[in-house]
Design goal:
With 193 residues, the chain is an alpha/beta fold. The protein contains four helices and ten strands. Helices cover 27% and strands 24% of the residues. Helix 1 packs antiparallel against helix 4. The protein is elongated, with a radius of gyration of 22 Å.
Length: 193
């Protein structure tokens, strides 16, 4: 009976400890343009400027550009499309296949354009300011009321604009790996204890 209690205690301690191994980097998935997606905006460049002004971008967040391959691209360029009239000669990265997800890896100002001829000139460009990562939070998703209409309720939990919603920890398969390894270690130790 004493051995069973010891085994249960060791197992419980190992499982509790394994939960502490979860990743703690703040992550928000920003759906660029919400329901509009990444396309030629009906109101010109103001569309994406307005969208970006309602968001808060942090290192570790992701940008989700929803577009159809062959109709649009997304390229990060080194300077403002306003200062450099929508040329892709200063391209840092190019994603010709949609939809595309880009992880924000460094703080500062980032510029994105569509490289299809004429698209950037008529407003398909985005400028964002990324803050350094300071807070620890689980992965979340930023949705606004307009994206609620376009997104099936079974896909995301919904909230007011700019409010990150934590996803269940199981949404990230890598978050589960430390739990499995530590639990197996605990069972092995309990067996030989």
């Amino acid at each position: 009976m004493t051995r069973l209690k010891s085994t249960v205690v060791v197992l419980a301690v190992m499982m509790v400890t394994s939960f502490q191994l979860q990743p703690t980097m703040a992550k928000t998935r920003h759906i660029v343009g919400d329901a509009l997606g990444w396309t030629i905006p009906p109101n010109g460049a103001a569309t994406y400027a307005t969208w970006a002004s309602r968001q808060s971008f942090t290192v570790g967040d992701t940008l989700f550009f929803n577009f159809t391959t062959g109709f649009h691209t997304v390229a990060e360029v080194s300077q403002s499309a306003t200062a450099d009239p929508c040329t892709s000669t200063n391209t840092l990265s190019l994603n010709p296949t949609g939809p595309a997800t880009i992880t924000l890896t460094r703080p500062g100002t980032h510029y994105y354009i569509c490289t299809i001829t004429g698209h950037c000139q008529i407003g398909q460009k985005l400028t964002i300011k990324v803050s350094p990562s300071t807070a620890s939070a689980p992965e979340s998703i930023a949705l606004s009321p307009s994206s609620i209409i376009a997104t099936p309720p079974s896909t995301y939990n919904l909230s007011p604009a700019g409010s990150p919603i934590p996803l269940p920890w199981s949404a990230s398969p890598l978050a589960f790996a430390p739990v499995v390894h530590v639990t197996l270690l605990a069972v092995t130790l309990a067996f030989f204890y």
